[in-house]
Specification:
Length: 167
C-alpha cells in the first residue's frame, strides 16, 4: 500500500512517473539520463534543510549571477559541482514551474525563461568540461543534459501533468 509518510514510496512514485513520462509519453529510452532527472526530482521535492531540498524562487532568480561568480571563486571540483547545481536548479524550475520563472523581473532580458534555460544548458556543459579524464560516463551524461535540456524540461512538464492527474 502507498503511504505518503514512507519516503521510499514517494521516491518510487516520482521515479515511476518520470520513467513513464520519458519512456512512454516522449519515447526517450536513455536510462542514465532518465535516472538522473528522476533523482533530481525526488531530491528537490523532499522536505530537506535549505540548500539540500527544493530550490526557492529566490535561488532560481540568482542563477545567472552564480554562474558568473563560480569561475572566480572555486577550483575545478567545486566549480563543477556549482555548475551542476545551477543546471539542476534551472532544469527543475523550467520543467515544473515555468510560470514562476516568467514572473521573475529581469530588466535587461526580453525573455527571462529562455535566458534561464540557456543558463542551465551552459551550466551542464561547463560542468561536463570540468569532469576529470577518468569520468567519461559522467562527462557524457552532463553533455547529454546540456544537449537534451529542452527534452528534459518537456519530460518534467509531463511529470507535472501526470502528477496533477494522480492527485
Amino acid at each position: 500500500m502507498f503511504s505518503a509518510r514512507d519516503p521510499s514510496d514517494i521516491d518510487r512514485f516520482f521515479r515511476g512517473l518520470t520513467e513513464f513520462a520519458f519512456h512512454a509519453r516522449l519515447g526517450v529510452v536513455d536510462p542514465p539520463l532518465v535516472d538522473y532527472v528522476s533523482v533530481l526530482l525526488v531530491r528537490f521535492l523532499r522536505n530537506e534543510p535549505p540548500g539540500a531540498g527544493s530550490p526557492t524562487v529566490e535561488e532560481a532568480a540568482s542563477v545567472t549571477r552564480l554562474l558568473v561568480e563560480t569561475v572566480a571563486q572555486h577550483d575545478g571540483d567545486e566549480a563543477r559541482e556549482e555548475y551542476r547545481h545551477i543546471g539542476d536548479v534551472t532544469l527543475f524550475w523550467s520543467g515544473l514551474y515555468p510560470e514562476a520563472l516568467r514572473r521573475l523581473e529581469h530588466r535587461s532580458l526580453r525573455d527571462p525563461l529562455a535566458a534561464y534555460r540557456e543558463t542551465g544548458k551552459r551550466a551542464y556543459w561547463l560542468a561536463a568540461s570540468l569532469e576529470p579524464e577518468h569520468a567519461d560516463d559522467e562527462r557524457r551524461l552532463l553533455k547529454r543534459l546540456s544537449n537534451e535540456y529542452d527534452l528534459c524540461v518537456e519530460g518534467l512538464a509531463e511529470v507535472r501533468r501526470m502528477w496533477g492527474d494522480a492527485a
